Amino acid sequence: MMTGEREKELMSGAGMLLEARRTNTPIDDLPAAVRPVTLEEAYFIQDRIALAYGEIGGWKVGAPTAEATPMFAPMPRAWIASNHAVLGGRHRFRGLEAEIAFLMGKDLPPREQAYSRDEVVAAIASCHPAIEVMESGLTDPLKAEKLSMIADLQMHGAFVYGAAVTNWQRIDFSKEHVTLAVDGVVRVERTGSNTSGDLMRLLPWLANEGAERTGGLKSGQWVTTGSWTGLSLGTAGSSVDVKFSTAGEVDLRFE
Prior knowledge:
Layout: H1 4-23, H2 39-52, E1 56-62, E2 71-76, E3 80-82, E4 85-87, E5 95-104, H3 117-122, E6 124-134, H4 146-151, E7 156-161, E8 177-182, E9 185-191, H5 202-208, H6 211-214, E10 222-224, E11 232-233, E12 239-244, E13 249-254
Parallel strand pairs: 1-10, 3-7, 4-13
Antiparallel strand pairs: 1-2, 5-6, 5-10, 5-11, 6-7, 8-9, 8-12, 12-13
């Protein structure tokens, strides 16, 4: 249980990250006194940052390995855009990841009995190719303390989704092929490369284990399920194209 004094310290850390993002003036890391030392503290900062950006439009969830416990972060509604989006000047880091995302069609409110995988799949309205743009108030989020990076919305900066995929339930994601190209040059080409192993395990986990924090998944929210391509970096003026073999295409451009 966090003390009131510790909450004040963490809120100060959230304010520093917000200011760094808003002014495009990154910091190397949070000062030790306001830096999270547990995942719970990192999530506390995440939630304070998300409040500043208004309505939550969805959640990013992923796991670094098939055995790892997933981690998740809120995605502000204001940062969600459809295919061919042009992203403006608030972007500095411009990290890029190809992902598969799902739009929820039914509410999954918190409940005592865990939702089954079938129940969660039945609540999905559609499946989409997506690009998550990674952004940060940290100069180089991969060199800062890991919990500082997680606190800073887990590097989330924008989410761009492509057209819905028909008959997505038939896709064998273990064999799905993806390319990510920047300015027409393929940077990454991989097959079956979602880091969580079985990406469909992530949604039931979020609906159940994440419900205390999310308040339950809601119709109209997005869930994006982790990187297929690792992290690539764009620049001002870059065009980015992602192509999945079955799950469609999505693109964006930076101003």
